[in-house]
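CORE FACILITY INTAKE
Project code: CF-77B
Contact: R.S. (postdoc)
Sample description: multi-component assembly, two entities in total
Requested service: structural model of the whole complex
Turnaround: standard
Below are the sequence entries exactly as provided by the requester. Do not edit them.
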Amino acid sequence: MSKPVKLRRFQAPIWDEPVIMEMGVPGRRGAHFPAAEDAVAEAVGGAGALVPSAMARPERPALPELSEPDILRHYLHLSQETLGMMGISLFGTCTMKYNPRVNERLAARPEMAQLHPNQDPSTLQGLLEGVHNFDLMLRELSGMDQFVFQAAGGADAAYTHTCITRAYHAARGELKQRDQIITSIQSHPCSPATANTAGFEVITLPLDEKGYPSLEALKAAVSDRTAALMINNPDDMGLYNPEIKEWVRIVHEAGGLCFYDHANFNGVMTKIRAAELGFDACMFMLHKTFGVPKGGGGPAVGAYGCSAKLAPYLPGPLVTLDNGRYALTDPGPHSIGKVREYYGNLQQVMKAYAWTRAMGLEGLSEAADISVLLNNYMEKELLKIRGVTRSHPDIDGWRLEMTRYSLEQLYEETGVTVADVQNRMVDFGIDAFWMAHEPWLVPHPFTPEAGEMWSLEDIDYWIAVLRQVSDEAYSNPQLVQTAPHNQAVQKVKVEPLEEPDHWAMTWRAWKRKRSAA
Amino acid sequence: MKEAVRRAHPFMPNSVDSIKQGLLQELGIDSVEALFEQIPSSHRAAGTFNFPPALSAEVELNRHISSLLAKNQSCESHLSFLGGGCWQHYVPAVCQEIMSRSEFLTPVWGTPSSDHGRNQVWFEFNSQLGELIAADMVGMPVYSWGCATGHAIRMASRLTGRHKVLLPRILDPERRAVIANYCEPEEMPSHIAMIDIASDPATGGLDLADLRKHLDESVAAVYLETPNYLGVIETQAEEIAAMARAAGAETIVGVDPISLGILKAPGDYGADIIVGTTQPMGVPMSCGGGLGGFIASRDEPRYAHEYPTLMLSIADTAREGEVGFSMALMHQSSYGSREDGKDWTGNSTYLHAIAGAVYLSLLGPEGLRELGELIIQRAHYAAQRLNGIDGLSVPLQQNFFKEFVVNFDGVGKSVAEINAALLERGIFGGIDLTETFPELGKSALYCVTELHSQADIDHLANTLQEVCS
């Protein structure tokens, strides 16, 4: 529908930037601290005498010695050697968002950045008001009765749920008996992994031909050992399980709790509410759906919401409004305590609150519409590209905000893998696409998510690049297999990294192993 | 009422009617509703959403959020002596500048080639931290010190096949609560018993007799911290590690890396697994949102194969002489093996590692030494000043780094009352320990850093004298 796409002549900056451990000159300084005041030094003597001799550091750490401008430029070079969403990132399941810079500026103000968590709540009233107001907005979106923001990521919120599951069943004297958590093979790995860490046995349901596990499989798995169900919906293939209400009913009937991983909320914002579907608890990732920067992997927030039934088990404290004052309130004796110190990444909660206020209810609804509209447009165009198929090709109908594709055909016809394609697309300024979580249910998978932040021109460009790479795979597969060619460094040799003699997680390990080699 | 004109939302480039209409036409449908056909109508949200009005104009949003934040009082507007598990240190401007670069701030994952620069910064953080703590293996950061300790204890339990950990009785209650969740309740099959080890009231360090009493071949790990929650430098760390080793237990040491410009590195006194905080290294407190943690160890396969974290390794590239960075040992993470992986991992605090890399390179060995010396001198000066006030005492006047306990038993007021009086005078007093450590009497934990000048400390002393008299 749009104009023909002209591919960009992209070239990443190549700085050949040394590792900082090999830079600098002894004696160079990047920061000074003042000497202690005369009266201080006079009163307490030199620092050397204050350090117990058994614990005094005998030698200075082998850190690089550089001046401030050297360091600034080194790290600016490294930022330039990072594609980092300067191009187009459709990293599926992570919902790439615009991160409004006004929120960064606000969060850097001392009234946010220079707050200590042990300050008296009377000195935190504005922050607590923002957090509480955002809690109320999430309650509207989910139907839950209380949110808590302590979990420092989506996986931590899943872990929160497994801890609450323990406490809930322990309070009923049923924890020893209820030792199983049920999930699906299409759930995020953090659901089974946190369930296992919390001490539960994990039952993973396979998919049937409809693209989600059958009711029969669920019924066969449920028993008086069921502690909880942890499930996402829609899944990462854009498929919505229309039997989910029945699922919740069955698990409840068996005495289990139902947790809704709302990782894929973007396409259904304002369309469905977790509590109305019967769920006891849900989780929103503020660093995904709610406009908080991802920071390359946190600081993040897994906002955990639950019904009144589970609220006594929440980690504390909760932010509450009592007689016009905001307070930090202990959830009570049944609380699971803490999943992380203090109250959570509240600077990120404030950014999410600001983003949601900027969007408004209509904005959220429109964003969901756009993300689903664009995904289906993309699907139509991508399926025209040679070698591209979609998962579950027999399931007709529109997908939600994501579709899972396969490059199996491309691989079989050209020998070019999905990783090769990913490596070649970055040559055109396209950030890596998401493939799929383990285990791969379709060979050579990829999962782009259009979301609402990318323009139609961006989406058309992305499609055009994949078309170009497909053409290259059929005409000159070696070009794709040896990619990237326009990036900061060439392809990294990853195979040796499983070997103790080769992996090196620090410079000191690398030096030692290289000199031994 | 005036008719609202629908405007395209500033965050959404496709929020333009002609684009949306064009897309619908491409799909051959009249309404976007058709695309939601998978969701049964009985699943659709009932009723309305009670939402505040949108603030799509940045000028309005800025005013709203600013006015909320203006209701807070901060450690900049006030003089704060709060520490405990989150500390006010100076954040150099270059840390802020680099951390707010869009390439680092906004993305998620790329390929090793397209995210080369970011991966290098992470590697530089892990490498510098490794030098500071004397460890060859450093995992990618985790949520917090408490979470790092929880994972480390579970690593030790898997390594030894034992289900008991010895921890100091003197432990941050926040951190303890986090660790408790990682150790699982008794009903669970891999429950790890948490046994408290007393501290020696004379030194503030671990009571070795009590440790000896509990240390046997059922113990997976001995956990110690230096400086500990009350600021005390553990002088017997080497002996404790040797005792643990003799019992076949792992030694887990928790540290505040900012102390290591002057204090001995844990890797040099027998630590097997090292954990700690990343927050003091260039990350603002943000009411606890600045927290981060790390896990490190010797570079041995037995440890390497128990890490739950992502592991970033340096590696050769296809170009001769060129290095890059990539994740190693992915198969043992929850991403690689779901419930069969080691604990779990996910989004963490990786942006803070970028601030930390910049911070450590700015300070370098001499900056860290100067910083450590300044802090320890000023903290001792503060302890002396407060100890000289009628009714106040500082029970342990040596072997501490930046925090120390002040006792108010000689004052006819509670710590809460004293802190309220300080607050009225623009000071955030130390953390009240009265309920969490009743054996210390009416006590508070005071924290002094490079941000506290002599004048600030004198002002605190004078104000305490006034409010305690």
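Facility notes:
- Residues 363-496 of chain A form a domain with the Aspartate Aminotransferase, domain 1 fold (CATH 3.90.1150.10).
- The mean pLDDT of chain A is 97.
Invoice: internal transfer
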